[in-house]
Amino acid sequence: MTFAALQDAERELEVRTHAAWTTYSDELRGLDRIAYDEAEPAAWEQLQATLGTLAELRATAHATGAP
Predict the structure, then answer these.
(1) How far apart are CA 46 and CA 22, in angstroms?
(2) How far is the first Cα of the chain from the last one, in angstroms, to the nearest whole number?
(3) Cα(30)–Cα(52) distance, rounded to whole angstroms?
(4) Cα–Cα distance between 23 and 19 in angstroms, integer?
(5) What pLDDT is stored for residue 4 in this prediction?
(6) CA pair distance 15, 23, nearest whole angstrom
(7) What was the pLDDT predicted at 14?
(8) What pTM, to 2 d.p., does this model score?
(9) Cα-flanking dihedrals φ and ψ of residue 30, to 5°?
(10) pLDDT of 33-54, one tens digit each?
């Protein structure tokens, strides 16, 4: 992987990270306390799974393409 490709991959992962946090926030926005308490654990679990996948992709990109 070239340095430019690594930069592109990193930018894409940052976009996907931001999107994951936005999805989490959007799923919970406007909920009353009871609905929030019911929805938040699943939303958090999904966010953590997505962030974990992105961290793995980031590590792989850096391991295979770091200068």
Answers:
(1) 12
(2) 9
(3) 27
(4) 6
(5) 76
(6) 12
(7) 96
(8) 0.84
(9) 85, 0
(10) 999 999 999 999 999 999 999 9
